[in-house]
Structures are given as structure tokens and as C-alpha cells.
């Protein structure tokens, strides 16, 4: 999710489409929060892991 956010952020910056820029920032923030919660051992979405 973080990688997708970075890609959208870069595309939004180069093409000057503000919606892609905004979605990229949101995806980066949500991905970082989920990553931190998962690293802390906290269950995210009712699951501790996805395998």
C-alpha cells in the first residue's frame, strides 16, 4: 500500500493531477499506520497475520 501510494504520488506530481496526489498521500498514511500496528503485534482487521 505504501508503494502504491508513492507511485500515485509521483504520477500526480509529474502530471499535475491533484486527485492522484491526494490519493497517494492518503495511501501512504494508511499503509504506514497499518504497518506500525502490524509491527507492534496488534491484530489488524481481526488477523494477526495473513498466511
Report what the structure shows.
- Helix 1 packs antiparallel against helix 2 (18-39).
- The longest helix is centred in the middle third of the chain and has 22 residues, at 18-39.
- The chain has helices spanning 2-15, 18-39.
- The protein starts with a helix and ends in a 12-residue tail after the last helix.
- Helix content is 71%, strand content 0%.
- The protein has two helices and no strands.
- The protein has one domain.
- The model has no long low-confidence stretch (mean pLDDT 84).
- With 51 residues, it is mainly α.
Quick take:
The chain has two helices and no strands.
Averaging pLDDT over every residue, what do you get? Answer: 84
The ordered string of helix (H) and strand (E) elements is HH
Number of strands: 0
Strand composition percent: under 5%
Into how many domains do the coordinates divide?
A: 1
Structural class comes to: mainly alpha
Radius of gyration over all CA atoms, rounded: 13 Å
List the uncertain runs.
Answer: none
Total helical segments: 2
Amino acid at each position: 500500500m505504501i508503494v502504491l501510494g508513492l507511485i500515485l504520488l509521483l504520477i500526480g506530481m509529474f502530471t499535475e493531477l491533484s486527485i492522484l496526489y491526494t490519493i497517494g498521500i492518503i495511501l501512504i498514511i494508511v499503509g504506514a499506520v497499518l504497518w506500525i500496528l502490524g509491527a507492534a503485534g496488534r491484530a489488524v482487521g481481526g488477523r494477526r497475520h495473513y498466511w
